[in-house]
């Protein structure tokens, strides 16, 4: 193994300790983080997923392990942890296969509503289960998380207008976080959910990418999946699932919809900044192509009557993602991704 890099050697030792050193390895598409994933296959057909989360990049696998354990305890489908070395940032986890909700819907659009209802059922289930000890998504957190918008997307925004928006938005954030708190998985969308047809009930929905979980408003994860930055979700489908959720939970509809719109606005403003940063700092220009979709969600939320005053403020603050604006952003993208 002398020819291996230090990280490759560390992984090889990890797999040897786990009894998976003879497995074939094939990369699996990951996310925007520094984490990498490989599917391991043994000669007998058994598979597992290697999660490589280098600690020096700021990654920490411990939250993933803790939340996975909690989700399984409360009756949801999170991967079993087969072997771990938390200090090295390495996990061997259960393989949930490739039946991503996003791919299933792309192959058969008629499955969108049933799959999204199944995703909503998971969120309904979480309302009835014990909550782990986690930080809380409060008004301060919601406001702070919008910072990338002004740092990377709306870099030329007037400072006084930024301050006016932040002050005004905080009052909305306080409204959105005033209700019941539940476990929110945060990256709850169609590319992190897998269909597990051999299981029953809510355990048919395989859950991934939940290491950043918090306690937060009941609408948060529903916004995450219905206003998906990576795929178009029509207003018709969105309304159908919101109605389904409200029918099942009997929650106050007006309050829920207002909270949903506030959280939707917050999430999508943050995502505009994150996608701009991924391009301008990290050299990942393809995220720019998703900005118009996110922009559409921003204004879908601002159409809510309760958010009218925020609409006027943001009109002055945010540059519209015209083809010219987006092309200029891509031209500023570093030629090589920064490690």
Automatic annotation (TrEMBL):
Q: Could you tell me which residue ranges the Aminoglycoside phosphotransferase domain spans?
A: 26-241
The family database entries (InterPro entries) matched by this protein are listed as: Aminoglycoside_PTrfase (IPR002575), Kinase-like_dom_sf (IPR011009)
- Show the Gene3D superfamilies listed in the entry: 3.90.1200.10, Phosphorylase Kinase, domain 1
Q: From the record, give the transmembrane residue ranges.
A: none
Q: Matching Pfam families, A to Z? A: APH
Provide the protein name.
Aminoglycoside phosphotransferase
């Amino acid at each position: 193994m002398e020819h291996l890099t230090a990280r490759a050697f560390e992984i090889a030792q990890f797999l040897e300790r786990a009894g998976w050193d003879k497995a074939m390895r094939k990369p699996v598409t990951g996310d925007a983080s520094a984490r990498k994933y490989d599917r391991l296959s043994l000669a007998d057909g058994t598979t597992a997923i290697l999660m490589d989360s280098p600690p020096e990049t700021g990654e920490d696998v411990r939250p993933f392990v803790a939340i996975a354990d909690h989700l399984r305890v409360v009756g949801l489908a999170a991967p079993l942890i087969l072997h771990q070395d938390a200090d090295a940032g390495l996990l061997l986890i259960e393989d949930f296969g490739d039946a991503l909700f996003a791919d299933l819907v792309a192959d058969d659009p008629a499955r969108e509503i049933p799959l999204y209802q199944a995703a909503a059922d998971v969120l309904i289930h979480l309302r009835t289960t014990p909550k782990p000890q986690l930080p809380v998504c409060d008004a301060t957190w919601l406001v702070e998380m919008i910072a990338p918008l002004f740092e990377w997307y709306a870099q030329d925004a007037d400072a006084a207008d930024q301050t006016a928006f932040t002050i005004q938005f905080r009052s909305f954030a306080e409204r959105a976080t005033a209700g019941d708190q539940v476990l929110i998985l945060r990256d709850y969308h169609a590319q992190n959910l897998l269909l597990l047809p051999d299981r029953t009930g809510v355990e048919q929905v395989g859950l991934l990418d939940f290491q950043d979980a918090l306690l937060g408003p009941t609408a948060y994860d529903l916004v995450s999946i219905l206003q998906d930055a990576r795929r178009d979700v029509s207003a018709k489908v969105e309304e159908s699932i919101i109605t389904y959720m409200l029918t099942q939970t009997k929650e106050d509809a007006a309050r829920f919809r207002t909270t949903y719109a506030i959280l939707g606005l917050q999430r999508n403003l943050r995502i505009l900044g994150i996608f701009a940063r991924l391009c301008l700092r990290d050299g990942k220009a393809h995220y720019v192509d998703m900005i118009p979709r996110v922009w559409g969600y921003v204004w879908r939320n601002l159409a809510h009557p309760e958010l009218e005053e925020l609409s006027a403020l943001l009109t002055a603050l945010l540059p519209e993602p015209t083809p010219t604006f987006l092309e200029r952003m891509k031209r500023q993208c570093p030629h090589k991704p920064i490690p």
